[in-house]
Amino acid sequence: MFALAQLPTMLGTRATARAIIAITLAAVFWEIGSRFGDWTGARLPFIGVVPPPSRVLLVWYNLIGDYGYWQSWYLSFLRVLGGFGAAMVLGIPFGMALALNRTFYQTAFPTFEVLRPIPPLAWVPAAILFWPTQELSIAFITFLGAFYTIVINVVGGARSIDARYIQSANAMGASRWTVFRRVVLPSTLPSIIVGASVGMGVTWEVVVAAEMISGGGSSMGSGTGGGTGGGLGFFIWNSYTGGSYEQIIVGMISIGIAGYISSSAIRALGDRIAPWLKPR
Amino acid sequence: MVEATITRAGTMNEKSASGELEVRDVSKFYGTDRYPKTVVDNCSFIVKRSKLTVMIGPSGSGKSTIVRLLASFEQPSTGVVLLDGKKVTKPDRDRLVVFQESALYPWMTTYENVVFGPKAQGRQGEPLAEAARGVIDRVGLSQFQKSYPNQLSGGMQRRAELARALINNPAIMILDEPFRGLDAMTKGLMQEYYAQLFENSQSTHLFVTTDIDEAIFLADRLLIMSNFPLRLRQVIDVDLPRPRRLADVVTSDAANQLKMTALSILHEEALKSFAVGNQMADHFIESYKQRYRPDASD
Ligand SMILES: Nc1ncnc2c1ncn2[C@@H]1O[C@H](COP(=O)(O)OP(=O)(O)OP(=O)(O)O)[C@@H](O)[C@H]1O
Ligand SMILES: [Mg+2]
Q1: Which of A6, B42, B47, B106 has minimal Cβ neighbours within 10 Å of its Cβ?
Q2: Which atom of ligand 1 is nearest to the CA of B63?
Q3: What ipTM was estimated for this complex?
C-alpha cells in the first residue's frame, strides 16, 4: 500500500498513476477469473473461457517481431486514414453548404437524411458490386461511417453561430468572404473537431467489421501466428478460425490501442488549430 | 491603476467622428400579421451629437430590440432611424454596438479582435498596429494583447470590447448594458473608466442600462423608457459637471434629486409589470411617491 501511495509522484502525474492502477487491477481480476477453473475445478461463466492476460501477453510478445501482425496494423490504419480523410475533405464543405445555403439545404438534405440511417455495413454487398477492388469497397464503407457524423456536426455547428458575431462583423464592414473565413469557420471549428473525433471512432468500428466480412483484402501473408495481412479485423477473424483465442484478444486490444492513438491525435490536432478552446 | 492608463495616445491622431442619431416614430412588431406583438411602440427621440445619452428602462422592456433597430441589424416596422439626417438601413461601422454579453470573438486574441474591423476596411501595416496598441493601452490591456477572451476577467472582456469598438471611430457608439453582471467593485471602476474614455473622445454615445446610479453618473441626457412595450416616458437633462468622479456624484444633492425623480417614474413602470390593477401595488406607488417626492425630501 505504501508503494502505491508513492506511485503518483514517481510517475509525475496523478492521472497517469490512476490509469495504470485501473488497468493493472482489471488485468488482475481477469487473470483470477480465467484461472479460477484450473484452480478449483469450477469454471466461471463467460470469463472462464477467455485466456488469461498472462498467456495473451506471451502470445503478443511473440507477435512483436511478426511481419503479418504489423501489416495488419498498417492496412487498417491506411483504410481508416483514407476513409476518414475523404470524409473530412468532402464532409466539411458539404456540411457548410447545407448550413449556409437554403436552396442547397432544401435540395440535398432530404436525400442525405434518407441515406443516413442506413448502417455502413449494410452497404457492404452493394459496395463490393460497385467498386472494382475490394480495397476500394472497404475504403468506401469506412468513408461512409465518418461522413454522416462529420456532416451532421458541421451543420449543427454552423447553424448555431451567435448572431451577434455576424452582426458585429457586418457592422465593422467585413466582406462576405471575411465573415465566412474569420467568423463562420472558426466558430464552427469546435463542432468540426467533435465530429472528427466521433467520426474517427466510427471509422474504426466500420473498418474492422468490413475487414471481417470481406475477407481482408488482397495480401494474405502467413506469419507465425496463423497468417494475417488483411487488417486487424481480418487478423481477429483469422485467429478465430485458426483457433488461437489469445490472438483474438491481442487483435481486440490492438484495435483499442489504435483507436486511442487516433483519437488522441485528433485531440492534439484540435488543441493545435483551436488553441482558444484549451481549458485554462 | 486604471487612471494611469488613460492617455489620449494612439487613436486620437485620427479625427474624432461624431454624429447625431434621430429616431422618428419607430415601432417594432414581432409575431404574425394577425397576432402582432408590439415590442417598440412609437418611439421618437434624438441622441445628441457629442453627448452621452443614457437610455434607462425596466428589464425586458425592449431596449435591446431598439438597439438592434438603431444598428440596422433589424428594420423598424414603422418609422425611420436617421443618422445626421440621412435614413439608415444597413449595419455600418458608423454605428457600432457593444453588446450586453461579450461578443468578442473567442478564437481571436485581444489584439486580433481589435484589428478585425480596421483590417476588414483594408487598413494594415505599422500604422494599424500602432493604432491598435494605442487603444489597447487606453483600456489598460497592454499585458493581455495575446490573451484569448476566455483568459480575461469579465471586466477585462468589457474593456477589450470597448477597444474593439473605439478603434473604428464610430460616429455613434451604442452600448447595451455593457457592465451588466459585473461585481459592484469592478462595475464602479468600469463606470469611472468609461466616463473618462467618453470625456476624452467627445464622440456621440448611447448607453443602455437598467441601473439608475449608473445612468445618473454617466448621462448628459437621460431617456426614461416605459415598461414593455417600449415607449419614451421622459427626457431629463443631467447637468452635472464633468469630469465626473463616482464619489462626487454619489454625494451630490443635484444628483440625488435627479435620481429620485427618475426613480419614481421607473418604479411606477416596474410595478405595472408586476401587478396590473393590483390594489396593493397602487398603494405602494402612492406611498412611494409620498416618500420620494423630490421637493419633499431635504
Ligand atoms: N425576435 C423577437 N420575437 C418576439 N419577441 C421578441 C423578439 N425579440 C424580443 N422580443 C420580446 O421583446 C421583449 C423585450 O426584449 P429586449 O431584449 O429588447 O428587452 P430589454 O429591455 O433589452 O431587456 P433586458 O434589460 O433584460 O436586456 C421581450 O419580452 C422579448 O420576448
Ligand atoms: Mg437587453
Answers
A1: A6
A2: 21
A3: 0.72
